[in-house]
Amino acid sequence: MISVRDRIRYSDFFRVFNFKDELTKGRSFLLLNTLISSIANVFITGVFYTGFLSLNGIDIVRVGIIAFIPYVAWAFSLLSPVIMSKFRKRRAIMIFNVLFYYATVVIATTIMPHFVSDYVGRTVWFGILLFLGNTSNALFGSGSAAWHIHFLPRGDDRNIYFSYANLISATVGTGVAITASLVADALAGSPLQAQVITSARYVAAGLLILSAVLLYTIPREFPYKNLGSKVAVWDIIRIPVRSRKFLLTALIVMLWSCFANVNASTWIYYVLNTVQVGYTYVYIGSIVNAVCSAFLLRYWRRAISLHSWSTLLLLVVFMTALMEFPIAFATSQTKWVYVLVSIVQGFISVGTSLVFANLFYVNLPKGNTDLYITFWNFSANISVLFGSAFGTWFLSLTEPHAPWYFLGLPFYGSQFLVVIKGFLLLGLCLYIRRVIPHIQPDPDEDPA
After folding, report:
1. pLDDT digit string (tens) for 328-353?
2. pLDDT value at position 42?
3. How many CB atoms lie within 10 A of CB 92?
4. What does the radius of gyration of the chain's CA atoms come to, in whole angstroms?
5. Residue 10 backbone dihedrals phi, psi, to 5 degrees
6. How far apart are CA 167 and CA 48, in angstroms?
7. Is-contact 231 368, C-beta < 8 A?
8. Is cis: bond before 403, omega within 30 of 0?
9. CA-CA distance, 208 to 206, in Å (whole number)?
10. What is the Cα–Cα distance from 249 to 436, expressed in whole angstroms?
């Protein structure tokens, strides 16, 4: 009979994550980074970030404007391979980038409202600080991919790697989020709520800096391919588009990034301020995601192995699209709709995270990884910019005239926007179904 100790020792987890060699050790530090980031990101993204902006007098349209500022900065990522090709060692530049990024995007934006009282002025300064930090990250941040890609396992072990990374992100992040939400809801209406949310941002910045220092000081830095070779900005577009399978796969992510983000920043604002759901209930989908990650993630992995990643990709996008239509009826009078649909969305998001995490590697050509990761990130982020800009423009037109009434329920621009999002995602399903036969990995390539 196998002992519990041996069962743990020879499990999938300890085969992929351990400290026996440089590759598994680096992989373990990537997972540690996921753990710490999952805690810290609760307070600087999503619900608490929107709450922070709302507490500082930023309305829903300005929230949308601020949200797409970082994606404007990603235009500079086209210069990243040109710059990074000149660095034989990237450790120092990566640490500088992380420190500068969090100093501007988290610390400076948290301090700034104490010195700027005008709401328009705050919006402008939020935009400036976010632009500076994200420009630095666009220039240097993607350079870490060519470093860390060495630590990723191949074949089915890659699904195991991403499944555990997603599991930790979901369970730890949700646990911290729920605890923090209970505190925030208990302090609702009190000045202490703003103080707690603000203080948590400083703690998050410290954790992220610590995590990044660990990530860029301990793992081995392998030699980079094509180091010193002349890289032109035009190559970042020209070379990736030559690979038809890679380009068609990237188009899936581009369309998903655009459509899924038409309301990514403003929907939470609507839920908090119009539906008037507490911080805790906003995370109901995350709770389900965490529970399903713990108990059902292996079944999602098995489904990918049995039915292929492309079949599961089509399934999760289709299910995501369907959920956009009923959640449009979430109002202050029908909070149960928001809760019910969020539960289903939480289940779907487990498969969505796993499928999309692996998508970059499915048809990744061999060669200069910097070029492909830059093209991938640039195209995805520009797509987010278009989606976010469209959503903000739509809300700027509709919000002044809202609400409208249908079936006795008030309807605002945010609700019409999720319906539009649903139809857009259904259109993406048609594209995926049409393109699947043309993006299957070659038999001699590393399977996703």
Report:
1. 999 988 888 988 998 888 888 888 88
2. 84
3. 10
4. 22
5. -105, 20
6. 21
7. yes
8. yes
9. 6
10. 9
Q: What is the 3-class SS of the chain, one letter each residue?
A: CCCHHHHHHCCHHHHHCCCCCHHHHHHHHHHHHHHHHHHHHHHHCHHHHHHHHHHCCCCHHHHHHHHHHHHHHHHHHHHHHHHHCCCCCCHHHHHHHHHHHHHHHHHHHHHHHHCCCCHHHHHHHHHHHHHHHHHHHHHHHHHHHHHHHHHCCCCHHHHHHHHHHHHHHHHHHHHHHHHHHHHHHHCCCCHHHHHHHHHHHHHHHHHHHHHHHHHHHCCCCCCCCCCCCCCCCCHHHHHHHHCHHHHHHHHHHHHHHHHHCCCCCHHHHHHHHHHCCCHHHHCHHHHHHHHHHHHHHHHHHHHHHHHCHHHHHHHHHHHHHHHCCHHHHCCCCCHHHHHHHHHHHHHHHHHHHHHHHHHHHHCCCCCCHHHHHHHHHHHHHHHHHHHHHHHHHHHHHHHHHCCEEECCEEECHHHHHHHHHHHHHHHHHHHHHHHHHHCCCCCCCCCC
In this prediction, residue 226 carries a pLDDT of: 58
Q: 367 in the Ramachandran plot: left (φ > 0), alpha (ψ -120 to 50) or beta?
A: left
Q: Across-strand partners of 426?
A: none
* Amino acid in the structure at residue 37: S
The confidence score (pLDDT) of residue 215 equals 82
Distances (CA, A) of 417 to 62, 267, 316, 399: 17, 9, 20, 11
What is the distance between the alpha carbons of residues 340 and 269, in angstroms, rounded to a whole number? 19
Q: Rounded distance, CA 203 to CA 200, Å?
A: 5
Residue 168: CB partners within 8 Å, gap ≥ 6? 31, 34, 35, 38
**Listed residue (109, 98, 97, 100) closest to 43, CA to CA:** 109
Q: Decide if 56 contacts 177 (C-beta within 8 A).
A: no
Using CA atoms, how far apart are residues 439 and 431, in angstroms rounded to an integer? 12
The amino acid at 375: F
At residue 103, the pLDDT reads: 93
Chunk the chain into consecutive blocks of 10 residues (it has 448) and report each block's average pLDDT, rounded to whole numbers.
Answer: 58 77 83 88 80 77 76 80 77 89 92 86 89 89 75 75 81 82 73 82 90 81 64 75 87 92 84 81 78 76 78 91 93 89 87 82 74 84 88 87 84 92 95 86 54
- C-alpha 177/C-alpha 39 separation (Å) is 8
User: What is the structure's pLDDT at 320?
Assistant: 92
Taking the mean position of all CA atoms in its chain, how far away is CA 375?
17
Q: With left for phi above 0 and alpha for psi between -120 and 50, is residue 439 left, alpha or beta?
A: alpha
Mean pLDDT of the chain: 82
Which tokens in the block code for residue 189?
């209406």
